[in-house]
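As a warm-up, study this chain.
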Amino acid sequence: MSYPELDWRTSFQEQVKTRKSLFEIALAPRKSVRPSQESTASSQTEICLPKTFKFQFIQELHVYLREPKELEALLQEAHIKIDHLHELESRPQLISSKSFLPLEWFDDFEYDPMSPERWLSIENLQGFALVQDSESLQWAWRLVTVVDYDISAFLWTVQGSFETWKVPRIRLYIVHEDPVCFCERIGSALNSRSDAENRLRFYYLRQLVDVEGYFDLSSDMAERFSKKSSEDALAAFKFLFRKFQIMLSLNICLVQNEWLNIKPIPGVVERIPPSRVDNVRNLYSFESSFSLIKRIIMFSHPAVSNALEQVHRECEKVRELSLFSLDSSDPITLAEFKTTNEAQLVKTMRYLKNNWIEKTTMQVHQNLLKAGRGWFDVAVDDWTVYQSMKLYRLTEQIKYRMQTALRDLVLSSTDAYFHRLCDPCVLALTIEEDYIWEENLIDSPFDSGLRPVFYLLLEMGDDVPYYSTDPDEFEPCLKILFEEAVACTHDVHQIEPSLLGSLIFDPYIFLSSMGLMDPVIEQRRVFLTLAYQKTIIPLKAYAARYLQFKELFFTNVVEYVEDVRTNKTSLQVKEEISFQIRMRESLERTLPLSIVIGSFWINVRPLREALIQKRQDLTAALLKMLTERLCTKTSDVVGEYNEINEKMCEKPVSIEHIYDIREFMENIPDLLQNLEDRMKTIVFEYEILEFFRHALPDADFYQKWHALAFPQAIMKQMVAVQEFHESEVDRFRKQQVSDEVEFGGKVEGVNVYISKFTTIYDVAKVAEISIEVKKLWKTINELIQNGETLNKRQELFELAAIDLSNLFELKESFESYKKLWTFAAEYINVEESWRENPLSSLEVGTIAKTVDYYRTSFQKLLDSFNEQPQIGEVVQIFLERVQTFEPHLKIIELLQHPLLEPIHWAQLARAAGIKVKVSLATNFQLFLEHNIHQYLEVLCDLIQRAQEQKEETERIEAEQEETRRKEQEYQRNREMRRLLRTEI
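Now compare it with the structure written out below.
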């Protein structure tokens, strides 16, 4: 089965390239008649202009037109549109009225009044060129300057305000040529192109209807001719006759079927003399030939051509689609690229599966309904009939057209996808796996100059630098997108099931698209894989170069500054700051904001700024640390200055204080000299901050200059202090005399009070007397200390010393009295605590030591008061009290015996007549109140019985343990015997 329309397109493309004879026919010399006489057809591209003067001769340069609008107006008057000059049918159609041959092929250069060399010799030659705007893509006439001419390509180079174009002469009007003749030149080219395209369509249509056997000589005519001529002559005649018959039949067919948009070709009937035309028409019958043509070709009805034209239009829309979205002006991430392309694929496939099939089916169905019943009856319900109809050939033609459009869509989309992704990666195809980035970090040897596709952000990880998207993800992702796009085109249905509703088709009838194993697709897929496998090698190598900045990136500013503060001097800090500044400047010079590697645009700005900022932070932290260090040092110096000043300016409270200040003031010059030397060193360190142009805070600035001015202020203050001290010495001398008199009165008063106080012997008031004694003792010590202070001042004032011997004798005589009442009060308090505390809290050893201490102390006091019998009796009273309590130690020890149990305590309480329950928690005073010493025998007897009971209990427990042990031994022996019997 042949498909004429498919063959027509392929054959026609070959004809355009190789068959020059057709163009020779199209460009044959015209007769000297006006175009209006040659054709009267009302075609869109038929331009009829009076050709009055073909050649121009420029005698002098004259500007005919000054604005492109004037030329457009002339062209519009001549019915010439801009579209006629540039718009071409990308795929020529047999039934289309659109042009498919470039207009410049038919340009008549004889219209040019001067040669290109003569034109270019004119300075600043201007003209109007029909060019396409790069942004809006609109065609328009623009004022340009002619700069050059390419003699091999027949193209003129023109220059606009910002762009340069190369245009053919047919689209370039020079302001010095006649605009009317230029319009005629365009009209002539349009007429020539229309005639050539019409002839190409006619000759191809002739091939379609050249069916063997239908246009041959009749057998009778061939037999008569063969008798009168040779075989070669007969063959030549048959060829000419066949060609003549087809031409005549086609001319008649085209006259009756103007919808084909093909004009009859003159040259057959016209060659016959007019007197013999009717005889020829009567001699040959063309009705059967015409019927044969209508049966052979599908274009037997205008609806068919309209349907195919609309199918062609829909197929052209498909060819303009894309399976991928590649128009992003800026680099995008892989995720965005994947999302965008998946959405584009879904959108395109939705159109292919739904809109394309539905529109094509609807338009074909609407047109075929106009054809009615017959060869194109869409209501056919018999499969055998359908296969013998022209409708079957038409649907096959539509299927192949749609398949070709679909394949073209796949080829163009994958080609654009392939070139868009792989072209930027070409420079990386020759590198090896062990590639190391040895170049600088700014210039990329893999920048092809093309617009990069993908966006990557370079970041610093805990282990190594990394990209925002793993480079290893690109190759499989791009490959999957490529394969999915190709594979999805296999699911586009044919239009037959939806067009022919009365026939039953398999539900899985799809258009044939490009397969994944097609050599072109496979080659592109393999190259895409290779390109990205190679491109990620320098990508990873580039990231590895940033490993050298890892330590800097993760440097802790606080720890770094603390280490410098601890281990480095100010000069070393200066060197460290200089180093940080140099490193920051180096980063600014050596790190780029971004870099292109193949199809990847790598954003290095955040990492670069982070590294530079880290250097700046370290520099600022070091300057701040140095500032704080100098502030601390300066503050210490100022503090010492303040201490000197404060100590020197203290208001003296005594003559001793004045002498201390004077002694201190003698050392002030040396102290100031030391501080000034320290401040010079600090000022030198301040120059480090000035070297780096670091501004001090206002407080630090004032503190620095305050420290430098402090020594002079202190020296001035010393003079004022010395004058003040002279007046204070006189005041303290007068105060010393009055203090001496007051001291004598105090000593006399204390002496009298002690004499009266020592006559008190009331034992019942021991607590009050002990308090008064302590107060008097403290007063005596204070008087002695005050007297010694007055004597020191007497010496400073160069006066006689005060006699303190009577005061020391008074202290010595009062010491024994003080000890008596102090010991007595202390012992009474201790004894009361023993009586009131529970038995469990009393420690016999500690009590015994305490009783022994106070007994010894009171015995010694007896010797001190031999000459004072009344006080001796008081001592004897307290000594007897101590001796009275001493036997109670034995009772406490017995009561604390560990063998006493509640039953023993109960028996002791009954024997002593104690009405309450007693135990170790009972106060010792309770036992003393019930005369426990009278029941020592009962207590000892209880303790003895408790010991005997304990021994008896221990004996019984030992016997029980022995019995238990023997029983266990018996049971063990018995078990052993049982086991032995079992084994036997």
